[in-house]
Amino acid sequence: MYCSHCGTKNQEDDRFCVKCGKPLTESGAVENKAVIHSVDKPGQKKRSWSFIGLLILILLVAASVFAIYKIWQPLFETIRGDTKSTPSTLPESFVWSQFEEMALLDSVGYSQVISPDGNSLAYQLGNYQIALWDTSSKQVSRVLEGHTDVIISMRFSPDGRSLASSAYDWSVILWDLQDGSIIHKWDIGDLCGVHFLDGGETLVTDCFETRSLYYWDTKSGEKKLDYFGWLTKSANIEFSPLDNALLQYGFATTYVNIYDRDYVNELGTASFDLSAEVVSAAFLPDGMNYVAAFFDGKVGIWNINSDDPIWQK
Fold it and tell me: What pLDDT does residue 61 have?
């Protein structure tokens, strides 16, 4: 039996403990399990609680590090220059697959333009043809044939039923998109940009070499107006969305000129100090104001009836 005082094992017939000398009676003796329980169990509990505490501490530290990283991640990416655009930042109508498929169609020329309703995209095919690509079906819906050289400029009419194009063959063609036929073809003998006015009833061609504007009746094909040799050299032309004015700026010019839509009366001039060339200019959607940017980094907004900017930076 075991001594209840020191836990020493004794013989069955011993009356006193051989180690501590205490009497071994039935009340003073205990079973082996009881001794082990009273001596070893407290140590085991202490070791178990220490392991659980260490595990909890490790989990808390890991969670804290992860939380700090997620909070400061945008700052880290900005510092490293890792900021990237994701599809979620694109307009909802943007579909990557459409543009991937278009890239496989054929060699695209210099000019591409999308219809006002967004349902068609016009671009040049390899042999100076114009392809109409349906953005819904993602297929070429029609091919227009008539030019004999590289396409320079294209523009849909406001109702989307016709398309005007110009090319290095020095011609301008007005196409009927219902059947792909040619409505009118003008052999102008110059390189031109194309613009629609009056809801598509007038087509304006601005010509590079002759620095001229021609106004054409899209129904009869007859010339309405022409201003020969008036444009600034290498002029860039844009008409107001309201068809009430046009702007022009040219190569190495330091100002933007504003005229009425028929190029008769000058309405205003946009410039700062005439020391920097114009980089670009465009009308705002309201049709009454326009923005111009200059090579020295200055940008301003002007009203079509004033030479003083209403905003500048």
Answer: 79
- The count of structural domains within the chain is 3
pLDDT tens figures, 290-313: 999 999 889 999 999 989 999 998
Q: With contact defined as beta carbons under 8 Å apart, do 10 and 2 qualify?
A: yes
The length of the chain in residues reads: 313
Q: Answer yes or no: do 164 and 144 share one domain.
A: yes
Burial-class residue 140 by CB neighbours within 10 Å (0-12, 13-18, 19+).
middle
Longest pairwise C-alpha distance within the chain = 138
How far is residue 307's CA from residue 255's CA, in Å, rounded to a whole number? 11
* Enclosing domain of residue 197: 96-222
Distance, in Å, from the CA atom of 265 to the CA atom of 303, rounded to the nearest integer, reads 16
Residues 250 and 308 in one domain: yes
Domain end call among 80, 110, 141: 80
Sequence-distant (6+) residues with CB within 8 A of 43 are: none
- pTM (2 d.p.): 0.62
Domain contains 90: no
